[in-house]
Structure formats: structure tokens, C-alpha cells
Amino acid sequence: MGNSKLYKGSLITIILKLLNEHDKMYGYEIVQRVKEITKDELKITEGALYPSLHKLEAEGLLNVEVLKVGNRLRKYYKLTEKGTKETVNKLAELESYIKTMRALVNPKFRID
Asked: Does 87 score more than 60 pLDDT?
């Protein structure tokens, strides 16, 4: 899949899902976790990730915590209560979309 445009519409959902599974994560950690889960099939670029994180923060879905790690400052992202609720909504939307796409790609698959 590489850097296919197909995943870009799902990037926000991917970020929310990962943050829902972990207490907090920093950007590079999110990128690496996606690569690990997808066995390098999906590669999220910094150019796509950070604008999405900033958007989620601006919408009140994420809190940012800056911690000093060694001699560096690292931004950790964590879901707000609103972000946790939005994660549920986004995952439901994605599941519905995947189900619809399966029906289109494989007409033998029925939507019930």
C-alpha cells in the first residue's frame, strides 16, 4: 500500500484509535506503531501526521503534554474525554465504510 491516498481519509481515525489504546504517545511513536502493526505497508509521513495532530488538538480532542526526555523536549498527545467519544464515532464510521466498500468490491458480500 505504501503511501497510498486511500489511507489519508482514515488518518484521523488511525491516530484516535492508537491514542485510545495507549495512555499517551508522541508523534514518532505513532508513526512507528503504524509501521509495526501494518508490517511496513502503511507509512505515515510527518507532513501528514503533525497537521492532523494539531487539528485534533484545536478541536479539543487531544491534550498535549511537553516532557523533557534526556536533553530534548517531547510532545505527548493524549485523548480528552471529547476525544474518547469521537474515537467511538470515527471507528463506527470507518467500520460502516469498510462494510460498504466490501459490498462494492465483492457483490457476493451483503450489507445487512
From this structure: yes
What radius of gyration, in Å, describes the C-alpha atoms of the chain?
16
For residue 93 the three cell numbers come to 464510521
- Predicted confidence at residue 3, as pLDDT, reads 47
DSSP, res 38 = T
The domain locations on the chain are 5-106
- Give yes or no for residue 110 having a pLDDT over 70: no
Rounded mean pLDDT of 19-33? 96
Cell numbers given for 55: 487539528
Alpha helices in the chain (DSSP H): 11-21, 27-37, 46-58, 81-105
Query: What are the residues whose beta carbons fall under 8 Å from the beta carbon of 33, sequence distance 6 or more?
Result: 18, 25
Give the CATH number of domain 5-106; options: 1.10.3660.10, 1.10.10.10, 3.20.20.70, 3.10.310.40.
1.10.10.10
